[in-house]
Amino acid sequence: MRTPPSPDCSLVFPPHPVWVRAAREAVRTLLAAARRTELTDTALVLTSEAVTNAVNACQAKGCTNPVTLFAEWTRRNQLHVLVHDDAPDVPALRPLTAPDAESGRGLMLIAHGADAWGVCADGRGGAGKATWFLLGVPAGRAARGRSPRGCSECAELEAARRKAVAGGDGETVVDATVAVRSHFRDAHLLKRGRTW
């Protein structure tokens, strides 16, 4: 019998890139406490993308209000992560115009990696918005065409990226992240002929 998920968590932090790692670690801890480590790799990548998008939006618009990460378990034992920021404008999937571009893939990765996801405007009437995703939908219920689970090269590249992050060498981290994104683009997006 599976242990019920642990309590929910939240993290409020300034819109600065140094907090992306803390957000990932909060989600990693929640998954470990709930004994749902099979979701860890995907959850950490998607959390990084959602938080990075929020931080970048805040910095681009001069918004200094904090970013908030909520990670919670649904009644069906699914992980729901929501990242809220107060920067104006709701992001949208952009067309893949330059295959070698190093940015602009955050929402695309979320769209392909999550069982469900979305972006919504701040319901309180403010200028902010939230990006959310859901993981752990039972097999057969998730929408088709999502991230390629079981791709050994994805797993190897992500393991190398995590090792680089742990080592702290910024240049190695950038190279490893580019390798992950390039493989994802070449092997899973362009191969399927997807355009956004």
Describe this structure in words.
This protein is α+β, with helices and mostly antiparallel strands and 196 residues long. The chain has five helices and five strands, in the order βααββαββαα. 41% of the residues lie in helices and 16% in strands. Strands 1-2-3-5-4 form a five-stranded antiparallel β-sheet, covered by helices on one side. The longest helix has 22 residues, at 40-61. The chain is globular and about 45 Å long. Residues 140-147 and 189-196 have low confidence and may be disordered.
Structural category is: alpha+beta
Q: Which whole number gives the mean pLDDT?
A: 77
Main β-sheet description: 5 strands, antiparallel
- The total of helices stands at 5
Total number of beta strands = 5
* CA-atom Rg in angstroms: 16 Å
What oligomeric state do the depicted chains represent? single chain
Task: Please give the alpha-carbon distance between the first and last residues.
Answer: 42 Å
Q: SSE order, as H and E?
A: EHHEEHEEHH
The share of residues in helices is: 40-55%
Globally, the shape reads globular
| Spans where pLDDT lies below 50 across 5 or more residues | 140-147, 189-196
**Beta fraction of the residues?**
15-25%
Please render the helix and strand layout as text.
Layout lengths: L8 E5 L5 H15 L6 H22 L5 E7 L5 E7 L20 H8 L2 E6 L7 E7 L16 H16 L2 H20 L7
Antiparallel strand pairs: 1-2, 2-3, 3-5, 4-5
Helix pairs in contact: 1-2, 2-3, 4-5
